[in-house]
What we know:
The complex is a heterodimer of chains A (239) and B (168).
Chain A: H1 3-13, H2 21-33, H3 39-61, H4 106-111, H5 117-137, H6 151-156, E1 159-162, E2 168-170, H7 187-196, E3 202-206, E4 213-218, E5 223-229
Antiparallel strand pairs in A: 1-2, 1-5, 3-4, 4-5
Chain B: H1 2-5, H2 9-28, H3 34-50, H4 61-80, H5 99-118, H6 121-131, H7 137-144, H8 148-167
Amino acid sequence: MSDDKKVSDLYRKLPREEPPRALDEAILAASRRRPMRWAGPLAAAAVLVLAVAVGLQVERGKPDAVVIKATPPPVPQSTPAPKPAVPAPSDRRTFAADPPKEAPAAAAEQIAGDGTREAARAESRADARGAPQVMMRAPASIHAPAARPAPQAMAVERWFLLARHGECADVSTLKRRVPELGEINDPQAFAALMRGQGYEVTAAPVEVPSGKAFEIKVPQKALALMFVTAELCSGNQAR
Amino acid sequence: MLAYRDGNAGAFETLYSRHRGRLYRFVLRSVKSRAVAEELFQEAWIRVIEARTRYAPQARFTTWLYTIAHNLLTDHWRKKGLSLVALDGDDVVVSSADPVRQIEGREALQRFAAALDGLPAAQREAFLLHEEGGLSIADIAAATGSNEEAAKSRLRYAMAKLKAAVDE
């Protein structure tokens, strides 16, 4: 018997530790909770239906909003996410299949610091999973607590994306970065779309002297967007 | 993993059952505390789950899985310092019927376990990746971010020390 085989045989005689059943169940449960690949398009479809429904409601009951058309300049592009590659352990950030710190569960992990990681993940997953339901129930629920404009008011507004030099771009220009954008054209619906896909989203209104502004960040997609209404585009229309 | 990526949730259960025991032992025998091992083990699988939609088979799944574990252990060691493995006084199973041989066998196994605990971290890791992960020298090098010569050397030294401990 070779020396290596002898060592291997001895190793095999050591206790064959197995993970506890509770750990197995927690991991398997997490695998089942993660959004499946079809959840993104499904969430987009749900958002689209809601946006159309709200739009129709508004059309029936409110005066037409002033619509200012703008010729959209290119939306500033952020560096695209790296493609998956064989990991280089000396630089874990290039291990593309090893998710970045900004993974959807990362915020929840910070909340749970005593080993209740799974519970924290369950919370963040429930939040992502529940996003389409949140949209169906109350669009206003995704707003920052400090400012809760009425959903109807949000839907009346025509929104644009504020570009780098102050010009406004049509929201549809986001399709290059978010192909599943569909007909979404307001920050509320966009935030719900991103959350429905499992992304961590920060969304907050911005105080402006006139009109409305809403900042939305999706770190995992390298998106930092400023949705604005037409008032903030006046005098800065792109040609 | 590709099946899981493409929406087959049951594929993960198959994947998990295939690798759970080996990965668990790899992590357990690399850190001091069973609680820490369980946390790192769970974190490794959570990373697999979270990376599912971006998974592209540019390396063997096993190599990728153990690279995740290696990275987690590296972070752990960086924060806590190197720790010896503690196999918490579990009973040793000896198959021989001869009582004398049983005692000798049990003692040899205990020496082996202690020697494994006492290996330098990099050598112990190379040995565990080989024994539990079934990784080749090339895969060990890829998983640990080293080159094949270093991986081969670490494994050789580990084997030699473990053998020497048993032959005492």
